[in-house]
Prior knowledge:
The chain contains three helices and four strands. It is about 30% helix and about 15% strand. It is α+β, with helices and mostly antiparallel strands.
Amino acid sequence: LPxxxxxxxxxxxxxDALDSALMPSTxxxxxxxxxxxxxxxxxxxxxxxxTVIGFDFVELAPVRGWHAPDFxxxxxxxxxxxxxxxxxxxxxxxxxxxxxxxxxxxKHRVS
Length: 111
């Protein structure tokens, strides 16, 4: 990646980037799209040495009774989550900074 590539990134992965043999449940299946390993390698390259502030997986169009593409999407999300943790570049969870002062978390008030 270029040296000026941002250190804090948000990843949006589109299901139709994957080869249609691997991901047929999408609005625009892509024959000749990315293989599983190409997708994992690309995500690994993008996340290495960077802080991932969030991500999404879009364009999955589930087909009733056909579960393999759903599991493929879930496995890719799970794999990406593992990459983020292994890179140890995740932001700490700070509920206090996410809530307005005076909000409640359970029985506790944020001050």
